[in-house]
Amino acid sequence: MTERWPKILVPAAGPMRPDRLDGAAAGMGEWGTETRALAAEGWVPPDMMTGLTLFLLSNQPRDPRKQSIPGGGGGVAGGVWVRERFTLHRPLARADAFSVTGTAVGRHVHKGRRYGTNQSQTHNAQGQLVAQNVTTGLLAYQVDASLTDRLEGQAPEQVAAPQPDWAAAVENPCLAALKALTPGTVFETAPVTVSLDLMAARDTQQPDNPIHSDPELAKKAGLSKPIAGGSHVLAFVLEVLMRQVGRHALLHGACFDVRWKAPVYADQAMVPWVEVVAVGDDRVSLRLEARLVSGAVAMSAEVTVPLI
Known about the structure:
By secondary structure, the protein is α+β, with helices and mostly antiparallel strands. The chain is built from 7 helices and 13 strands.
């Protein structure tokens, strides 16, 4: 029987678990001053907003016969993000109630690996749009040579991506700092080591995906060591940007297109890197990278921050 796409997902309701938000701050260590400051002010940091699709997926009904151990048998609970396109329309307070709705829009096989694409929309208790996400995740890390390339539903590039929200820019308290940026400016830091302790702190005692903190389950999923979650890698790069333009700069209509290209293994060092690409009358365009000290680019992103 042919499956029908898209598939409506069961809605999920927040707020986020306090330990998850505390873990996001603790997972930055002493390095994440702006991320920790946002947490102290009571706000959900922008990197955690990439997890809204995962929040929705983790609340879906599950058949325990299909995955009794998260991450076991080569499967990856919730998926390993390879691309995330999202817009943050307004800030979300830690204690705010919210609802997430969405659909599974397609899945595909490429070179022996299975991927799924989902989209979600998050609204606060007042019914205001908080975030839109389009997420493509790797469903199993191990390559299965018996699989042939195929597509069901929509391919990731066929899904309409969220766009910058210019109407939200009027509320951005960091406009002056954003407008003062100069094209070609690069912000780069010394290497930061993403230790297993930091990964475990972010994952909490109730991890959604233990491949980020449990060495044994990481091995069962086909990994030599635990890998940092995609949002964790992103958080270190966003920290560099927030230091320059303000911790609230990305919470008012900013649009992101993030691609994770290589794993960041536990205790591996990377260099967060930000370049100002363009500054116009209505937007700032930025390019972000997480560069492994080995030379590989683990993550790259294009970010557009709307201006007024």
